[in-house]
Design a protein that fits this description.
The structure holds two protein chains of two kinds.
Chain A lengths: L3 E12 L4 E7 L1 H6 L5 E5 L10 E4 L2 E2 L4 E7 L3 H7 L6 E8 L11 E6 L4 H11 L9 E6 L2 H12 L4 E6 L6 E2 L2 H7 L7 E5 L2 H13 L3 E5 L15 E3 L5 E3 L6 E3 L8
Parallel strand pairs in A: 8-9, 8-12, 9-10, 10-11, 12-13
Antiparallel strand pairs in A: 1-2, 1-7, 2-6, 3-4, 3-7, 5-6, 13-16, 14-15
Chain B lengths: L14 E3 L2 E3 L3 E3 L21 E7 L12 E4 L2 E4 L8 H12 L6 E5 L4 H11 L5 E7 L9 H6 L1 H14 L4 E4 L7 H10 L4 E4 L3 E4 L1 E2 L4 E2 L5 E5 L4 H14 L4 E4 L5 H9 L4 E4 L2 H4 L3 H15 L15
Parallel strand pairs in B: 3-4, 3-16, 4-7, 7-8, 8-9, 9-10, 10-15, 15-16
Antiparallel strand pairs in B: 1-2, 5-6, 6-14, 11-14, 12-13
Helix pairs in contact in B: 2-4, 4-5, 5-6, 7-9
Classes of the chains: A alpha/beta, B alpha/beta.
Chain lengths: 262, 312
């Protein structure tokens, strides 16, 4: 596992919707070694406030040494990032954590909700490049409203995998949740589910997959300071009553390894 | 072509904390550098003055439930709760790597009673690769013991005495800033036989989530660290260094060579870098370089000339 601290130039800035931003950075060392589901820690500025780096899952990487992140402007750190300009440099540290463990031979069902769509693009790229039949693979994207989903759809379409969308308000795709689509699909019995999204969505994915005896991996979020196992600040409850740390044990976990609220 | 005339010797950065010799005054603070291996890809570990590993207790500890950390203005609060693998696994799994790094490794120890500190010290006796012990009497994040040891001079002295009696390496005692008189605490542990003191641990603080009307941290309170506490730490190091005859190690919000040099001027023989490791994993080595540059630029014979050299 090699980690790199790179000064990365912003080469593209996309305002995908009101608050959602996508930034492309030149970070060849990170791009060259990253796996789908891994994340980077980015310093939003050079000062002492905000002090800590912010974690971002890798949206995708390119063989040309670029990485992309996709995020929502929700606080002080992301607000600074949302006002970054092309040409500016960001201090990026990564790739970090354990990404998705790709089951080569199993049909894949990718479920991304809201900002949880971010790591799914990277994963879809990997899955679609596997030299096997893709007729049973499936991507499900969801969000609160049209602008959470639509701007990303073309990027997913290029892989040629089946794609379904849902929005809470019905302004794009079906009206409802990603899990409604999941329940309505005829999944092969050895389907591997991969998910990222809000906690309640992940919990439904866990319940759905365990009731059908399907394997399910999810990427979870946590507050963290270091991203590399030093601060131990990002613990989550595990199914065996212990703690796991999102930064080194995850961010991707088998849902069976985590404790769920209900 | 001529030789370069002014051959620029590598600056003398070595310092002695009692009998503990460091090649430079820059150490990494307990709980911010894991067991060092986490940083091996990022830092040339052999260039550091010393490494202080995550606090160890007799038995493994799971630590506090989430949420454990929260960012605050120019700082962060943590309530990790002393999560650690316990002394047996530490010796079996972590020391193998640590003893090969080539710089002094200081083991931070913590307990809930004087007897626990004594047993822990006994257990670490004779373990190859331990250069010194740092006694944590000041963690704010455990329900029993921690704070009391760090805030009552007589108990602080008793813990120091028990550890000192059982230890076969120098003993550094880490002080809490959450006291009304830091000088009294420094003198108490000096009286208990400490070979050196390090300060400060985190300042107790709190953050509230107004939306949920709940504390942000599951532990309700946590320890404040980062640049926000530097002025407080600097003041306490200055006062403690003036009051005791044993070496003082400065800790609190250090993230640059300039910060470290300020602590040295205030009377610290060495410094520890904590929270900054989270933000810039390479910071410890950069501070070593920066102190070297300062010594060269100011034509000092040694960094030791600067210790306590503050003119008031």
């Amino acid at each position: 596992m090699s980690q790199h601290q790179e000064k990365a130039r912003i080469i593209r800035f996309e305002q995908l919707s009101g608050l959602n931003v996508r930034i492309t950075l030149e970070a060849p060392l990170i791009a060259g070694s990253a796996e789908a589901g891994q994340f980077v820690m980015i310093r939003t500025g050079s000062g002492q406030d905000p002090l800590l780096r912010r974690p971002f899952s890798l949206h995708q990487t390119s063989s040309g040494g670029q990485i992309q992140i996709y995020f929502k402007n929700v606080g002080r750190g992301t607000d600074i990032m949302a006002h970054a300009k092309v040409g500016e440099m960001l201090d990026v540290f990564g790739p970090l954590g354990r990404g998705f463990s790709i089951a080569d031979d199993k049909p894949a069902c990718l479920v991304g909700g809201g900002l949880g769509i971010a790591p799914m693009l990277f994963l879809a790229k990997i899955i679609s490049s596997l030299g096997r039949d893709h007729s049973q693979d499936l991507i499900i994207l969801g969000g609160r409203t049209r602008e959470d989903v639509e701007p990303l759809v073309d990027d997913f379409k290029q892989f040629g995998l089946a794609l379904h969308c849902a929005t809470d308000d019905g302004t794009y795709g079906i009206k409802g949740y990603v899990t409604d689509i999941l329940r309505s699909e005829q999944l092969a019995e050895n389907t591997q589910i991969y998910g990222c999204g809000p906690d309640n969505m992940l919990e439904v994915l866990h319940q759905f997959s365990s009731s059908r005896h399907l394997s399910c991996q999810v990427s979870v979020e946590s507050v963290m300071a270091c991203g590399m196992g030093a601060c131990l600040g990002c613990n989550v409850d595990s199914s065996d009553g212990d703690y796991l740390h999102v930064c080194i044990d995850g961010p991707v976990f088998d849902t069976g390894d985590l404790a769920w609220n209900s | 072509m001529e030789f370069v005339k002014d051959h620029d010797p590598y600056p003398d950065l070595s310092v002695n904390i009692g009998s503990l010799e460091l090649q430079n005054p820059v150490m990494t603070a307990s709980g911010t550098f894991g067991y060092a291996r986490e940083f091996e890809d990022l830092v040339n570990l052999h260039r550091l003055g010393g490494i202080i590993v995550k606090g160890i207790s007799l038995e493994p500890r799971a630590g506090n439930p989430p949420q454990r950390i929260v960012e605050t203005p120019c700082g962060m609060l943590n309530a990790i709760g002393l999560q650690n693998v316990g002394v047996d696994r530490f010796i079996a799994e972590k020391m193998v790597y640590l003893k090969g790094i080539g710089v002094p490794v200081l083991v931070n120890i913590l307990g809930d009673s004087v007897e626990e500190y004594r047993q822990l010290t006994e257990r670490l006796r004779g373990v190859e690769g331990i250069a010194a012990l740092e006694v944590n009497i000041s963690c704010p994040n455990v329900k029993k013991g921690g704070v009391a040891f760090g805030t009552v001079p007589s108990t602080a002295a008793a813990v120091t005495e028990a550890v000192k009696k059982a230890a076969d390496v120098p003993v550094m005692v880490k002080l809490s800033p959450n006291v009304s008189d830091i000088v009294e605490m420094a003198k108490a542990v000096e009286g208990g036989g400490a070979d050196s003191i390090s300060l400060v641990n985190t300042l107790i603080g709190m953050a509230i989530d107004l939306k949920r009307r709940r504390p942000v941290l599951a532990n309700v309170i946590g320890g404040l660290s980062g640049p926000a506490i530097k002025p407080v730490a600097l003041r306490m190091v200055y006062q403690a260094a003036a009051a005791v005859d044993i070496p003082v190690v400065g800790i609190g919000g250090i993230e640059s060579a300039e910060d470290a040099l300020e602590f040295i001027l205030a009377g610290a023989t060495a410094v520890q870098i904590g929270t900054a490791n989270f933000i810039n994993p390479r910071v410890s080595e950069e501070v070593v370089d920066g102190i070297g540059d300062y010594v060269k630029a100011n034509k000092l014979a040694s960094i030791r000339e600067l210790i306590g050299a503050l003119e008031v």
